[in-house]
Amino acid sequence: VPPVFVTQPQNLRIILNDNGANEVFASGTQPITYQWYHDEETIDGATTKQLDLSNVTEADEGNYYATAANANGSVDSVSAALFVISPPSITSQPTNMYVIRGQAAQTYTGVDFDDGELQLMSWYVYGVELPPPYNTNFFYLINSYPQNQGEYKFIAQNEAGSVTSNPVQIYFVTGVRGNLNIAGNLIIHGQ
Known about the structure:
Layout: E1 4-7, E2 12-15, E3 20-23, E4 25-27, E5 33-38, E6 41-42, E7 50-53, E8 62-70, E9 73-76, E10 80-85, E11 89-92, E12 97-99, E13 105-108, E14 110-112, E15 120-125, E16 128-129, E17 138-141, E18 151-158, E19 161-164, E20 168-172, E21 178-180, E22 186-188
Parallel strand pairs: 2-10, 12-20
Antiparallel strand pairs: 1-4, 3-7, 5-6, 5-8, 8-9, 8-10, 11-14, 13-17, 15-16, 15-18, 18-19, 18-20, 21-22
């Protein structure tokens, strides 16, 4: 009897540098041999029902399948995808905010998540998490007042880890009449 897969490989999500495994099982006349493939390339030494993956990197991402063979024939399993999940990274740091009392304060943190990952983002002031709407990478206060001064940090996290921005401050400019533009430059009225 030729081999028939009764257990197929499963899609996997493995955190960068962690270990994982996939397994198949074929019925049929014994002995049955196995060979695993990654993106159509033979994986050297992967000749058992279980494929062990250790210290995975982005290079391990892709499609995997196994072949089962005996004296009566061979069969391929279905293909299963391996997704390697990396921690988020900050692509641009937030900047200090210079504001006039009662005006808006804003800053932005560039953050990179791998596609399809659980994404959690929050702003903190002196280590205390701010409630929504401060759960995005854009920080905006409509009206800024001295009690808003403090050290702010942005934290992004997913199942693979977290990253924290450099701390930023809200500074209040006093004794001038004017507006601050988006870059934090003071535009003084009448000048």
